[in-house]
Amino acid sequence: MGYDIERFVGYVNEGLLCSICRDVLEDPLQAPCEHAFCTACIHGWLIHHSNCPEDRQVIDVSLLRPLYRYMKNDLNRLQLHCRNREYGCEMVCSLESIDRHERECEYSQIPCSNAGCTVQVERRNLDGHLAVCEYRSRECPNGCGYTILSAEDTQHNCVAELRTELELLRSEMICRVEEAKHEMESRLDSQRRHMVQKESILQNEIEELKSQMSRMMSDVRSLMAAERQHRQELEQAELEKREL
């Protein structure tokens, strides 16, 4: 749907009206036959039809294009009243800037920000409403630090609330202690496994060194036996020499 033509100041060119809703174009699209429509209007029309509502020429969603630039400029320059005029807003601005104004308009109806409250108030009156809203929250005047709603004043019990808070803190502390305990046990297990693995590696290295030493001793004994054999042969050769 387009913008209600009654909101506009002065004359509005016929070419800037939607061919379906007959209001001023909102988010406009143009068919190849140059008839213009609000996006929502033409999309709704094409669900049940396949032609232009003005001249019955065949059109498709894929054929729709943005409005000509000069028409878009003329549209944006139109002056209109804020939609909150009935609540007292007297602002008149261009169509191009109306959305920005209405998002910030002091006369806009907005919901109360307190959970559970369904009241809608003007933006300019929101602070006043929040000060008296039955769903507003505040800190307990007795000093327990608990945030309460005005509607719960009669049910609030400082001792009970503090006891509940204490139980929650105790439960949280127990959980944290258990988590820290599990984490320490996990770290100790990891370190223990690492030490066992390292001990196994060292033991293997020791066994390998023992094996190497045993082979070296065997080689030394073999060399000593060979040396004795060689000395005996020399002595035998010396005796034979003397005899000759």
What key attributes describe this structure?
244 residues, mainly alpha, Herpes Virus-1, 11% strand
Structure report:
With 244 residues, the protein is mainly α. Among the domains are: 3-102, Zinc/RING finger domain, C3HC4 (zinc finger) (Herpes Virus-1); 107-147, Zinc/RING finger domain, C3HC4 (zinc finger) (Herpes Virus-1), CATH 3.30.40.10. The protein is 50% helix and 11% strand. The protein has 5 helices and 9 strands, in the order ββαβαββαββαββα. The chain has helices at residues 39-48, 69-77, 95-104, 126-132, 158-243, and strands spanning 28-30, 36-38, 65-66, 79-81, 92-94, 109-111, 120-122, 137-139, 147-149. The protein has a 3-stranded antiparallel β-sheet. A two-stranded antiparallel ribbon has the order 4-5. A two-stranded antiparallel ribbon has the order 6-7. The longest helix has 86 residues, at 158-243. The protein is elongated. The N and C termini lie far apart (140 Å). The model has no long low-confidence stretch (mean pLDDT 87). Keywords: Coiled coil, Ligase, Metal-binding, Zinc, Zinc-finger. One of its GO terms (biological process) is regulation of canonical NF-kappaB signal transduction. Residues 18-56 form the RING-type domain. Pfam families: zf-C3HC4_2, zf-TRAF.
Q: On the 0-100 scale, what is the average pLDDT?
A: 87
Going across the major beta sheet, what is the strand order? 2-1-3
**Strand share of the residues?**
5-15%
Reported CATH architecture of the domain at 3-102: 2-Layer Sandwich
| Distance between the first and last residues' Cα | 140 Å
Write down the secondary-structure element order. EEHEHEEHEEHEEH
How would a crystallographer describe the biggest sheet? Answer: 3 strands, antiparallel
Keywords: Coiled coil, Ligase, Metal-binding, Zinc, Zinc-finger
Domain RING-type: 18-56
GO molecular function: ligase activity; zinc ion binding
Zinc finger (TRAF-type): 101-144
